[in-house]
């Protein structure tokens, strides 16, 4: 009987222990699930906060952009002073770029260009200030010499804007290493390299017309460039036939001088 009682007590203790273990495990699981739920809630709250911050940041950016645009629109010039301002802008343009692209002054040149051009400025085959900046960088890559020399100026009011037309000469010398990128016919063998020696060793003068339209905000809304590159090449290369062969598939616009390769 004593042995039976001992066995029963042991069984009871074992059962109690199992029950306690199960209870502990349940409590532990419940606590862990509660912590997990709390963490999930914290993560969701954090994600919501991040989303709100991003939305607020976007709103501030939009508001800042709108404020800047409004400031530019409100920067109106009286009719008389607008023409004076337009002339100053054009004079500065030719002063900054008279000696072509300068590596040491590149930052200054690009900042000036962005400061005077409207964000959506239009050209003959370009649009946007970034496109004009990129075009100026390409001039450095493909021309060993690029000098702008204004000669005749004419300014007139056009509605609420001022148009300044400048007859100019551009003095060019192509880079020997990159001229083949502008005229692929040199690489394919359609044209002998000797034909373009005057373009890479001498100075080629090209007549050009720059037309600036400055709006009431004081920014250049249109900058049209017309160059007589076709006539210049005919004169330098000796015949129109040579020009046709050289310019087959060329990547520089003969009417505007725009380079279409990076």
UniProtKB/TrEMBL annotation:
Keyword Coiled coil among record annotations: yes
Key words, A-Z: Coiled coil
Coiled-coil residues: 29-56
Keyword Coiled coil: yes
Name recorded for this polypeptide: BZIP domain-containing protein
